[in-house]
């Protein structure tokens, strides 16, 4: 039994630390080396009914059996380590956003058309505090809706020059000092690292708990912002439609908002 446990930990420690070396997470699994070097061999020596040799001899025997007799358990430990690192690094979330970009797995959201089947419980919570721990929307001075609206506008608008940047600032009334700095930080971030529509919409779905009305209001505000900044060209409209589809809106919802944009 102890040899099987050693094989699991050996696979987890060796492969896990190797993956950590090239990952973005700061987790350290140094304690596993101590377990491998001292704890398990010593435990095996003290619990054995007869003398089985030195700690070094026991370790060599454990390693050899882990890579031969108990190779399956070694691979299980390795796989568990890789999965844990990928989960902490956000890779699973990145894949899931592409498989099902509208997912917002909270207790209030059921299967099917999530936005229409949501059941609200408890007191209403201000959008400023909803999901404030999410890095993408945790911008000091701006609430969740404003941050999402700015990010989506910068992605959707075909033209984002100085006049458009100033137009968004004016339309959303971002002229005061703290909001002004936060807004221009988002603009600078967009210029340095462009984001995918799904990478913005998916966490926003989680922030609003999959609420269809909130998604519809966001799309309407985005279309109004496009009108205010004179971004009503075909390329922008196509991107807006794509955003609406990812938000789970119906063609009627999108058509009404886009129609108002063109008035």
Brief descriptors of the model:
mainly alpha; 65% helix; 263 residues; elongated
How would you describe this protein?
Helix 1 (2-21) packs parallel to helix 4. By secondary structure, the protein is mostly helical. It is 65% helix and 0% strand. The model is unreliable at 104-134 (pLDDT under 50).
Topology of this protein?
Layout: H1 2-21, H2 30-47, H3 55-67, H4 71-89, H5 91-99, H6 144-156, H7 162-171, H8 177-192, H9 197-207, H10 212-228, H11 234-246, H12 251-262
Helix pairs in contact: 1-2, 1-3, 1-4, 2-3, 6-8, 6-9, 6-10, 10-11, 10-12
- How would you sum up the global shape? elongated
β-sheet strand percentage: under 5%
Count of beta strands: 0
Helix proportion range: 55-70%
Oligomerization state: single chain
Number of helices: 12
Average pLDDT number: 76
Integer-rounded radius of gyration: 26 Å
| Secondary structural class | mainly alpha
Terminus-to-terminus distance: 74 Å
What characterizes the major β-sheet?
none
Low-confidence stretches: 104-134
Could you give the order of the helices and strands?
A: HHHHHHHHHHHH
């Amino acid at each position: 039994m102890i040899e099987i446990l050693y094989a699991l930990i050996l696979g987890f420690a060796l492969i896990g630390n190797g993956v950590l070396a090239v990952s973005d997470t700061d987790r350290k699994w140094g304690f596993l080396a101590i377990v491998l070097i001292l704890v398990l061999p010593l435990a095996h020596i003290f619990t054995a009914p007869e003398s089985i040799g030195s700690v070094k001899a026991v370790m060599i025997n454990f390693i050899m059996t882990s890579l031969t007799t108990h190779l399956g358990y070694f691979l299980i430990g390795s796989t568990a380590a890789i999965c844990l690192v990928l989960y902490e690094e956000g890779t699973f979330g990145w894949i899931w956003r592409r498989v099902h970009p509208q997912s917002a797995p909270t207790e209030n959201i059921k299967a099917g058309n999530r936005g229409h089947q949501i059941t609200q419980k408890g007191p209403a919570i201000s959008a400023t505090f909803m999901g404030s721990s999410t890095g993408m929307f945790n911008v000091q001075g701006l609430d969740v809706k404003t941050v999402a609206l700015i990010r989506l506008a910068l992605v959707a608008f075909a033209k984002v020059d100085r006049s458009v940047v100033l137009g968004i600032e004016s339309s959303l009334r971002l002229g005061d000092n703290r909001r002004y700095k936060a807004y221009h930080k988002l603009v600078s971030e967009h210029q340095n690292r462009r984001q995918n529509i799904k990478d913005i919409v998916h966490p926003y779905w989680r922030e609003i708990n999959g609420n269809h009305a909130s998604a519809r209001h966001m799309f309407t505000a985005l279309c109004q912002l496009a009108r205010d900044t004179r971004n009503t060209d075909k390329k922008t409209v196509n991107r807006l439609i794509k955003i609406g589809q990812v938000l789970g809106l119906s063609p009627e919802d999108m058509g009404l908002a886009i129609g108002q944009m063109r008035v």
